[in-house]
């Protein structure tokens, strides 16, 4: 075929993928393909546009531009009809092409014959046609660009993939209305690109029928600039609404200035809702017979269309006077004419009452509003004075929250502040109005309970206080447990002066804390215990100054070969009066008095020096482990300090191990993860001590960089042959190995324990059965005698 015949029509078959299956001479003449070369070629190779086979097949054809023989192009109507085999299964397509020369139709028909694919890419927004399954059958390049997808990816995509989850229900409902009700819909929604970039769009769509099937044809317009304008307008409105000062906008109307806008601060200050103020002149709030000069200043300034600032009194809606610092500014239109005034009013009544306010600030705690230390001493002194005169009793209660530092570490300081506020309210609710509740410092509260008729009465009040502290505090979806230790001292039995009463209550509180919390009344024995505690704290300071502390080293043995695999550094105190003291007798006081960090630094220095000596003697590969407390490793720069020590002593990575009880790490998982990662990066191994003593969080342990776990002493001591008491140790060994960790059994004291642990795969053993803790010289002698540590 050499010319475009208006009646020309060719028909051929394709397979399911749109590849030519049959080809006749008419087709060969029209398109220039031979009958031998045509089969297997994609039908889309005949098209001059970028139409894709899935879109054509879904639509049943289209008006398209085609390439004809001789390099010419022209418009044609492509119709696709599904073919079926003898079993009724879909098999291929029948393709019919009808050609009409452009000069045989009207201009409107020629324009109407323009392929949709050529038009949609000229549209300023996105264009799309989707089927009932939510698949794209036609779209333009703008859609590909916004979605950051290739054409093939768009063809395979689901329209819902382009919307945020929160928008999908609305989109689904609108698509349903289009297909089921024939509705024309529009909605504002965000396109979500592959990269996550969001583009606000106004989408519209309606139902269009094509070859017997219905499709949703629609367009989208980018409304980012409109959204930005709306955002700025909304920001301005929010700023006006959020302003702490009252704002009034009035319109000039002759001698009056009619209110057109008031913000929430004005409503709060004046007490008038916006609906009652708008449409009235602000003079309706005037306080008769007050500040006539200032009102005259306003009147003249408004008449002269100039700014003015005055301080005067107005009336709130409830009739109450308030001091108003008012600044009025004229607003001009585009022609320079004053059309409005903006008035900014500030309620300065509180400033007039500044003296009372300052007094409250000086005497009350800023966070909780309770009496502070200054007011506490004044109230307690006054209560003792009256009680002395009237022969009455006064109870002083000192309350310290349990584990408050853990609350801050676990939930954050904001949660800690909330707990303090809630506790303050509960304490105030549990006492009488005549009593005083004060925040002494941090998480410590002091109560002054006046006019106590009997100790039984005091006990009931204190029990009410204790119960008020047992309920958890809700914060951020968490229930924060709150408990407290309460110490009680009674005037005149436990002290005559305020300072004596507080000191006695503090001793009682400390006694309660040492016994797990609860309530304790002061007794003379507590004073003696307090003096002993103070003497111990002084002794610890002296021990550091006079080199009374020393380390022993207990070897860790290979369970199979019996070779030495490392040492644990154990602290001792050579007390000048009490002899050698174990850590359990003094470390708790060191923690309480804040001396634990200094002691821990000393231990690390000594352990590094010992390791250096071993290496100089040729004993390598024998790490030294050091136990550290939460107070030590939560200090800023803890890991950096270890790294500096190792560098100073010339120790390679792996020379030092840090032992931390499992319960301490679980108490603050975030800190535990950070610490383990920092230790790993510094070449220091982390060893989990007391494994299995409490509840183990195995998923948490898997997140840590841990070298080994040490069985709890209780698990080892419970070993007795193959009885039930031995099952815990066996289970813990299996768990450690399942976590791919080395397992150490410590505190091994009997042959039965050693045999059991060895037979059940425990990797290393430590305890009196093998060796007591040794001084450094004794360690060297042992290694020389064994001659197997290398």
TrEMBL record:
Limits of the PAC domain: 308-360
Residue ranges annotated for the GGDEF domain, each copy included: 392-524
Listed GO biological process terms: regulation of DNA-templated transcription
Alphabetical list of Pfam families matching this protein: EAL (PF00563), GGDEF (PF00990), PAS (PF00989), PAS_4 (PF08448), PAS_9 (PF13426)
Family matches, as InterPro entries: Biofilm_reg_signaling (IPR052155), EAL_dom (IPR001633), EAL_sf (IPR035919), GGDEF_dom (IPR000160), Nucleotide_cyclase (IPR029787), PAC (IPR001610), PAS (IPR000014), PAS-assoc_C (IPR000700)
Domain EAL: 533-787
Domain PAS: 1-52, 116-182, 237-305
PANTHER family the record matches: BIOFILM ARCHITECTURE MAINTENANCE PROTEIN MBAA, DIGUANYLATE CYCLASE DGCP
Protein name: EAL domain-containing protein
Upper taxonomic lineage: Bacteria, Pseudomonadati, Pseudomonadota, Betaproteobacteria, Burkholderiales
